[in-house]
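Show me any protein, fold above all:
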Amino acid sequence: MNKELQKFKGLGVAVVTPFLPDGSVDFKALESLVEHLIEQHVDYLVALGTTSEYPTIAPPEKEEVLRCISSTNAGRLPLLVGVGGPNTNAVLRRMDSVVAFNPDAILSVTPYYNNPSQAGLLAHYQVIAEHSPLPIFLYNVPGRTSCNLKAETTLRIAESCPNVWGVKEASGNMHQILYLLNHKPEDFLVISGDDLLTLPLMAAGMDGLISVVANAYPAEVANMVHLALADQYIKARIYHDKLFEITRACFKEGNPCGVKAFLAAQGRIHNVLRLPLVPVSEELQKQINNIVNHA
């Protein structure tokens, strides 16, 4: 496998954006969180993804968040940056603006709201790949976009665009995922975008995970993923079982509401989100506090 591709095997963390009580970005907490993730041996960082509350962050703030993550990381781990959206030309413009921060690759979600056909998705990614100065990872998350990138289309993109290095697959469609794993090119990564299903998906051949839960439990998720990559599934299952209820609680009332509740209970951030997102219910917060206190 291409040596550069190896950087994205393992555990990536979709970094949350901490906010202060007044709703502004808490850069001190963001710096601290990035340092903690690096110390806990995650393999790479993902900035400005879904978990960052990307749609609620103004363009100048996006630049400052990316600058904070990039400067704190200081090249220690590979950096993947979210650059996607429903407007292909806008994606191209945004892509140009992130290059100054020296990311290693771009993560580009399928166009949402427009509900393009498979032909439209193919054309969208071919144009992005043609213009991108950086490698690209596709991101398929139909639960959020109402747009499913089918395995056959992913394979066509992989074959026609050599700078598309892989896909973050979060469809939850096992038939589709298994078809993709069985037909993908050798130098093409298939990365889990679903914390709860990661261990069985890695047993089927996935190359790792871009995780939400690892914001709060980086060491445990890293151990599970690294053991699975080493084919030590009995040992990996110990961490999978430990993380099972944590993961269920994390997503029970949406992302990143759950993981921010965990991070707040751990004292790492304020439990502040931007509308239309709100903190988890009192009942779920009590459950999360109990998990944290007995971990």
